[in-house]
Amino acid sequence: MEAYGALLTGGALPAPSADSRHAEFVVWQRRHMASERGRVQRDYWTRQLSGELPALSLPYDHARPARQSFNGASHEAILPAEMVRTMRGLARSLGVNLPAVFLGVWTLLLHRYSGDEDILVGMPVLGRPDQRFDDAVGYFVNMIVVRGKVTGNQQAKAFLKDLQLTLADDLDNAEYPFPAVLAALRANGHEPPHLPVMFAYQNFVQPGDVGTAPLPEVLPGIHQEGTHDLALEVYEGAGDFRLRIDYDTDLFGPDTVRRAMGHYLHLLGQVVARPDAALTDHALLLQDERQLIVDEWCSTAPGLDLDHNIVALFQRQADRTSPALLCDGHTLSYRELNQRSTQLADALCDFGVRKSETVGVSLGRGIDMIVALLAIWKAGAIYLPLAPDDPDTRLRHVLGDSRVRLVIADALARDRIAALGSGEGPACLVPSELRPRKAVATRAISAPRPEDPAYVIYTSGSTGRPKGVVISHRSIAHHAQVMCDTFRLTGQDRVLQFASMSVDTALEQILPGLLCGATIVIRSTLWSASEFRRAVADTGVTVADLPPSYLHEVLLDTGATGDWEALRSLRLVITGGEAMMPDTVRLWRDSPLRDCRLINAYGPTETTITCTLFEIGRQPSESEQTGHAPIGRPLPGAKAFILDRYGQPVPSGVAGELHIGGAGVALGYLNQPALTAEKFVASPVSPGTRLYKTGDRARWLADGTIAFLGRLDDQVKIRGFRVECGEIEAALRALDLVRQAVVLPRTVDRSTQLTAFVVPEGDGAADFAGDVKRALKRTLPDHMIPSVMVRLAEIPVMPGGKVDRAALTRHALVAETGRHVDARTPLESQMAEIWREVLGVARIGVFDDFFDLGGHSLLAVRIAALVRQRIGKDLPVSALFEAPTVATQARLLDERERAWSPLVCLRADGRAPRGSVSTPCRAMCSRIASCPSGRGRSTRCRRRKSTRIRAPWKGWRRCTLRQSGPCSHMAPITSAAGRWAA
């Protein structure tokens, strides 16, 4: 700069000389590293950067490419002189320098973008140790890492002072070379820091440097490309400051970086103007941005003005003679449904059911379950579905917590409830045992008010106890009407009822259709993909709501068979309950079903089933470039807010917690006021309204749709059921077999499975995994049983005491399945290969149990489809329950003349199912009329000898009950089949 100034002013140029001082600097640096001062600096950086380092999560527009291209661009802004003067005054009053102010606001912006409180920023510094190297030519720049700690309730001025102290300490130790710091960290077993973000303060030219010559200017558009994800450079001029954000164009678009510069300047202005305010009080959104997001994106349309409940709305269809329900060839007209539900409601009144009393329902899949639902509401009571396959411990908790006095049940459920234990248990009303009575209007019970509870559904709880979600009549009636309009339902539609009645999705598959005069087609048993096609073709289903993983199997199998004609009646497919993967969308777009509407639905139980929808077009949109299909926009009457940890709306592209408001928000959790207050909060954006904190991470996309990013906690969706890993961990730790346990989810073949890492109490038995799973099944439902058990000597922890989840995932996920026997025949080899592909398990033995390896009903459907495609033989889904090993399935396929049975072996050991009271086999025969159709397959009922019965309809010929081992009694087949179908 001295020579440059001399040229500009006409002064004498300094004499040139040979410069070897950079070599001298290298020698000095090596000596410094070996000195005591160098060791102190090295130890400082290893302390600063050891342990679990934060990984900054930025609002990327694109996925990181496999290879960095180093393509970059920049966005610039000028800080006015007036702002500079104000900043200088603030810096002097706080005792901090200007770089600390600029860096502090940059750190604050990164905190607001990521939600992280621990922010690492790389910062280049001048590495010339003394004056003898000031004008030496060479590379003297070193890198330091500034670690900023942000807490929301901290005042801005206190945060800047703390950062100034940190920065001063960092600069005192800046002589130790950064590559040597990284080497020292690796030598001590620590991961080096990942630094996607940089900050640089450039003040290398001072007015006195060039005498009276004009100051050099920073040329716009000149920048170092793509070396980091984001970098803020501040150039200090004589009166103003030039700010520039350099960015990697493979990761960010120009609009995102332009908004980031606006947010930075907005925060900078607030910090300078209000240094005494808490960091939480500084808004991130600009005014026009807030108006767009809060006023337009958060709610799309007003709700309906409804004062009617579901029963009143249903009565508008009550005199129709068209079919309301269809199940296995049996139909019930609207008039008959109204009459039967009224008769059952009268029976509830005879029992003494009071208004707003909770009534449980435990029935097999079929017409009776919908009759019971309407009857409960006609009697003014609250509907509570009970899952038939829940273990006794969970069922006992639900019955006790809900204080149910009466359960509408089938015979098997009645016997099971009676066997739960002594004490004041609920009474059971079995609809099939009621004497027919003349249909009359339900006796005088005042109609429920809109704010009265309509139903309670229990979901998984993090404390180890399920929690009951209470939904009002207003919410469910409003939702049913909105879905009628959204799905464009008419009396010509046939709507598939697919979900288990213990999941709230079932209500969405029933109620909107009934309010529009459509026919509800009830799935009575588990269907393979081919059976789904047959059912759609036979019944003319027009609207189907399917889990994404099941839809994927249907698309795969139908594509392999080419039987798209069977699905031609479908006009609308809804999918939800879990994230829909891009490959499922691609399969749909590549199939003839692309002419059918496809809707991705999202909604927690606490917001009345569904609160946002995204309709997937025939061509990909910009909204779909996020990994999963977006969850769309709020329904009419619903509001969706994405808020940061301080309750402030986040900008487009920035992740936050999704909050739902509007007509569908639940009344709260049954008997849990503290949890209700924690999860249902006053809206910080819309005063006077309540919001439900979903615990889901989401972000706004540029077009105003919402992208789902996963859970904030460890809650996951398993087969459509919401599961909290904490509940499973609590159940594991309650076992005498287990000392410590951690449960983590993993994704296998598009479905989420659970892995339990367990430290046994003592040495553990040889079949430790099997013992633990059997013990868990006494307290948890099947979908909450971990697929894989990994036995550990201890749970790895971080230096701070937290569980080291990264270390856990590095353990080999090998199921403890007992003896391992490789495939012995070509057919077993084919079956094992199919299992490996579907289950995602590398090593399959022919005696490994399908369910112990993480199998479930949807994966069974997938295996059946692959067997048909690759081996050319039919393996019914029921066979995977009856023969859950490669060996037994291969043997079944070898028996070419075997007559497949649609029934499932409930117990191979000859004992009745847990918690039930058996009845004689011949007593079962009188109930055969209400069994699901066997679709004409060979059926027969026998114990020691065959008992021939005359079937009341053509679907049944004979019914076979195979019993292994000694057993003198059997449970009613109706109830048993109902439990498995559910």
| Strands side by side in the biggest sheet | 17-18-19-20-21
Tally of extended strands?
Answer: 34
The class by helix and strand makeup works out as: alpha/beta
Poorly predicted sequence stretches spanning 5 or more consecutive residues: 812-818, 897-901, 906-982
**Relative helix content:** 25-40%
Give the overall shape: globular
**Alpha carbon gyration radius:** 34 Å
Known CATH architecture of the domain at 2-284: 2-Layer Sandwich
Work out the helix count. Answer: 29
Report the CATH C-level class of the domain at 2-284.
Answer: Alpha Beta
CATH superfamily of the domain at 2-284: Nonribosomal peptide synthetase, condensation domain
Write down the CATH topology of the domain at 2-284: Chloramphenicol Acetyltransferase
- The proportion of strand residues reads 15-25%
Please tell me the overall pLDDT. Answer: 82
Cα separation of the termini: 82 Å
- The biggest beta sheet, please? 5 strands, mixed
Q: Could you walk me through the main structural features you see in this protein, from its secondary elements to its overall organization?
A:
Among the domains are: 2-284, Chloramphenicol Acetyltransferase, CATH 3.30.559.30; 306-526, 3-Layer(aba) Sandwich (Rossmann fold), CATH 3.40.50; 715-810, GMP Synthetase, Chain A, domain 3; 906-982, no CATH class. With 982 residues, the chain is of the alpha/beta class. It has a five-stranded mixed beta sheet. The protein has 29 helices and 34 strands. It is globular and about 115 Å long. The model is unreliable at 812-818, 897-901 and 906-982 (pLDDT under 50).
